[in-house]
């Protein structure tokens, strides 16, 4: 595996995990796990401090109910953050 360089704030490095999610309960959740909506390209923290939703609204997390909502699983990706910096979160 090649050496990974530190990226700037707006160029965080993510590694897509080879997961085929067919149910929200299968999605891993951790501080360095992020969900990506391939439709709009938004990254969402899997363990957000407040509810988050992607730009097109197809992937969202409701922290009050601890629930992940996925409209289309074929457009849902799980990524692992390969950087220590705090990423940009699109929060509503
Ligand atoms: Zn989206």
**Structural class by sheet pairing and helices:** mainly beta
Lateral arrangement of strands in the main beta sheet: 1-7-2-3
Strand content: 25-35%
Order of SSEs: EEEEEEE
How many strands in all?
A: 7
| Helix-residue proportion | under 10%
Low-confidence stretches: none
Bound molecules: zinc ion
Distance between the termini: 37 Å
**Oligomer state of the chains in this structure:** single chain
Describe the structure.
It is a single chain. The chain is globular and about 30 Å long. Strands 1-7-2-3 form a four-stranded antiparallel beta sheet, with no helix packed on it. Helices cover 0% and strands 29% of the residues. The model has no long low-confidence stretch (mean pLDDT 85). A hairpin with a 5-residue loop joins strand 2 and strand 3. With 92 residues, the protein is mainly beta. It contains no helices and seven strands. The site of zinc ion has 9 residues, from loops.
Write a concise synopsis of the structure shown:
By secondary structure, the protein is mainly beta.
Chart the SSEs and their pairings.
Blueprint: E1 14-16, E2 33-37, E3 43-45, E4 52-53, E5 59-62, E6 67-70, E7 76-81
Antiparallel strand pairs: 1-7, 2-3, 2-7, 4-5, 5-6
This protein binds zinc ion (ZN).
């Amino acid at each position: 595996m090649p050496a990974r360089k530190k990226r700037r704030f707006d160029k965080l490095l993510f590694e897509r995990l080879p997961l085929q999610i067919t149910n929200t309960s299968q999605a891993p959740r951790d501080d360095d796990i992020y969900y990506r909506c391939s439709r709009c390209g938004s990254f969402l923290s899997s363990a957000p401090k407040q509810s988050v939703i992607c730009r097109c609204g197809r992937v969202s997390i409701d922290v009050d109910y601890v629930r992940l909502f996925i409209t289309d699983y074929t457009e849902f990706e799980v990524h692992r953050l390969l950087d220590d910096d705090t990423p940009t979160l699109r929060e509503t």
